[in-house]
Design a protein that fits this description.
Strand content: over 45%
Number of helices: 1
CATH architecture: Beta Barrel
Number of domains: 1
Helix content: under 10%
Radius of gyration: 20 Å
Oligomer: single chain
Shape: globular
CATH superfamily: AttH-like domain
CATH class: Mainly Beta
Largest sheet: 14 strands, antiparallel
């Protein structure tokens, strides 16, 4: 199938651009973005998914406000023939300036939430190296390339008739673009296949922080090797970066050590991140010690991110056109049991006298003795 992208000099395989170089159903491209206010009252995460080997495009948003209510809207459509149109129902995505600014919109709908947000990078996109690669039973389970960027937003969010104006002083944000074979969606609910290999325990951790004169990001995947009695860090990537106009090149991180705290007093939110600190070292020997304090939380599992809520998960075929929405009471324990899972913590970061803002994603599942957990 010929598309407008076939006019460009960017082919990587002997095929038209609509066909990936692999037939793996897990092939995914994702654009993800979030914005949150530094006062700690509101946190929105949204994204688009493109699954050419499932013939699906989908979009989602999760918006938590005042720590009391979260709105979730999900939509999905048949990808072809409009493979080059980045719209799913009232959701749309536009590249305003390549590698620097993008725009996410959700038009008026039946679920009480809409927005028009443009985010602009504060520093160049940072490529995560190495690519995330995981092999299980001789088969590539994940092989993902990712690039991330700290951003500042402009625009508005409208919820239940109230409009929030976004500005670059009171709001911060992050964005992520990734592509490759990805384990995190419809493959979770496939039937007739062997149960996936599960380690005794695992830790997933991503962070992206922005200070006035620098920023940092890291992505860690660890498993607990019960037979040998230690943690195996099977994926690690990260870097220090600097704002546009600084004339400084980014630096690769060679080491990150974490010391986190968790809340175990909320049964319906097991192992909820409660802050802590990290220390990291760059390839030139630069060292940073950073403390972290979460100020907002956005629950993305019911939006389809690793969670199968009300028959939907990212990449699942939902028909030619589909959309739904939900409103959650975050003070209802039964609701929290249903939606607890993958989430982002909008956080304050401190390094000496410097104060920065950004996000932390952290999940510890199963056995992880360092933090006192001995089982699932």
């Amino acid at each position: 199938m010929i598309t407008r992208y076939d006019e460009m000099f960017c082919h990587q395989v002997v095929s038209t651009f609509d066909q990936p170089g692999t037939s793996a159903r897990e092939w995914t491209e994702r654009a993800w973005m979030q914005v949150h206010d530094i006062a700690g009252t509101a946190h929105l995460a949204t994204g688009f998914g493109y699954y050419p080997n499932r013939n699906v495009m989908d979009a989602f948003v999760a918006f938590a406000i005042q720590g009391k209510t979260e709105y979730v809207v999900r939509a999905s459509r048949e990808l072809r023939p409009e493979i080059g149109v980045f719209k799913v129902g009232p959701f749309s995505y536009d590249v305003v300036e390549p590698l620097k600014a993008v725009r996410y919109r959700l038009g008026e709908n039946d679920y009480g939430l809409s927005y028009d947000i443009t985010v602009e990078g504060r520093s160049p996109l940072l490529e995560e190296n190495p690519a995330q690669l995981q092999v299980s039973r001789g088969r590539v389970k994940e092989h993902i390339k990712r690039m991330v960027q700290p951003v500042r937003p402009t625009g508005w969010i409208k919820v239940e008739g109230t409009t929030l104006e976004l500005d670059k002083e009171g709001w911060v944000g992050e964005r992520d673009r990734s592509w490759g074979i990805r384990l995190a969606g419809a493959d979770f609910i496939e039937t007739g296949v062997q149960t996936p290999e599960l380690p005794a325990g695992m830790l997933f951790n991503f962070a992206l922080m922005q200070f006035e004169k620098w920023g940092a990001t890291y992505h860690i995947r660890e498993v607990w090797d019960d037979q040998r009695g230690f943690v195996d860090r099977w994926h690690f990537g990260g870097g220090l970066f600097y704002p546009f106009g600084s004339n400084k090149e980014p630096l690769k991180l060679v080491q990150v050590e974490h010391s986190y705290k968790f809340r175990d007093d909320i049964p319906e939110q097991a192992r909820r991140f409660a802050g802590g600190s990290v220390s990291f070292t760059a390839i030139d020997g630069t060292k940073k010690e950073v403390s972290i304090r979460p100020v907002t939380i956005c629950y993305q599992a019911p939006a389809g991110y690793g969670g199968f809520y009300k028959e939907f998960i990212h990449g699942k075929w939902m028909g030619e056109k589909w959309m739904d929405g939900h409103r959650f009471d975050l003070n209802n324990p039964e609701t929290m049991r249903e939606i607890w899972g993958y989430c982002d913590y909008g956080s304050e970061f401190r390094c000496g006298n410097e104060v920065g803002h950004g996000t932390v994603e952290l999940m510890v599942v199963g056995k992880y003795p360092r933090y006192g957990y001995q089982s699932y």
